[in-house]
# Entry
Amino acid sequence: MAAKKKTYGGLAILTAAAASLCCITPVLAFFAGLGGMASAFSWLEPFRPYLLGLTIAVLAFAWYQMLKPKKDIDCDCEEDQPDGKTGKKSFIQTKTFLGIVTVFAALMLAFPYYSHIFYPEVETNTTEVNQVDLDTAEFQISGMTCTGCEEHVTHAVSELEGIQSVQSSYEKGRALVRYDKTKTDKEQITEAINATGYEVTD
# Structure
């Protein structure tokens, strides 16, 4: 029984992590300085609803197994445990363990909604610029799946000289960039976005 509960817990964590892997990877890539790895698992995004459902189903079944009434057996013998002891449950058989697994899985599933907090705030350019030198360009981008992807693109573009503002949207699949065209251009911005692993399509 302990082995089964351990399997349920491991499967729940695995599916929860896989469901959010497309958004966990950009954060890891950002801190590791491996920008091009950010979109490595974006192909998992279409499967996220199924992985989410599987995670919930596994956890629900594990809790059902934990809380369902046990059948009374008229026997004077003690229940043998996998660790060779009797009468005492191992930690992985407890509600505490399953509760920890459930909380961890929930945090993994919700990661796309709070992944942006791991990125430092982008500093806006306060230098006075001649309005004639300012331009705004829209870049269509493929591969972004969450707010973490947005932040990754925003930070990559903001590192270029002359960038005034960046507004990235994974839902619209685009980034609006306002920049000083005497210091940078569309080609450099495109290269910065492509270097993250996402791709400018237009």
User: Anything to note?
Assistant: Residues 19 and 52 are 6 Å apart (CA to CA). The two ends are 55 Å apart (CA to CA).
